[in-house]
Amino acid sequence: MDYLAQMGRELAAFEACLGGDLSAPVEHCGDWTLYDLASHLGGGNLWAAAAVTEQRGDYQAAPAPRDPPELAAWFNGAGRVLLAALDTDPSASAGAIAPPPPVGFWQRRRCQEALVHRWDAEHALGTAGPLDPALADDGIAEVIDVMAPRQVRLGRTAALAHAVGLHATDTGSRRTLGPGDPVATASGTAADLLLLLWGRLDAGDPAITWDGDRGLAGSVLAGALVP
Question: What domains, with CATH codes, occur in the chain?
Fold first, then answer.
């Protein structure tokens, strides 16, 4: 997976949204507007760049500018800083969180963050475009292997009481979220399953089909699987 190339495309697509209504509410991000989301993603990119180049986790980005052209330029610059910082050996150590992950962790993490938030931005403007199937499939794996376990470890959500199967009908992947045998299996495209795990798609959405006890599975998916 060429995370840097994918990230560059996702950040460019997000930046294109900044010509729209910056006061548009972002449905799945609390009371945030599109401006707030841009500030979050751009500031997070600068934070991650500092984590890699300065081995620090206390970086705080200055507030994003309010003027639309200045905001777009700021966001673009933050993306370029991050891409330059991550253009190095994926196995190199990068500080900021414990245990210190390699650079490859941040390549993947920031690419997936850009993917989901690009969808959020376009969705806020009523123009949500498709998610790359292979990248979305990788995002499912990240939630299962990295994000959900970390959320539990940090006490942000309860330990998963049941397992949920996830079958991506376009990529063919089959994975399990949680311990033991799945109480139900959700089937859909990799993009729809990723959006389901990120709380962007409801378990009852017609894009998802179920085999098994959807109620128990829904109780697992209702947890804070991602930050």
Answer: 3-129 (1.20.120.450), 135-221 (3.30.1050.10)
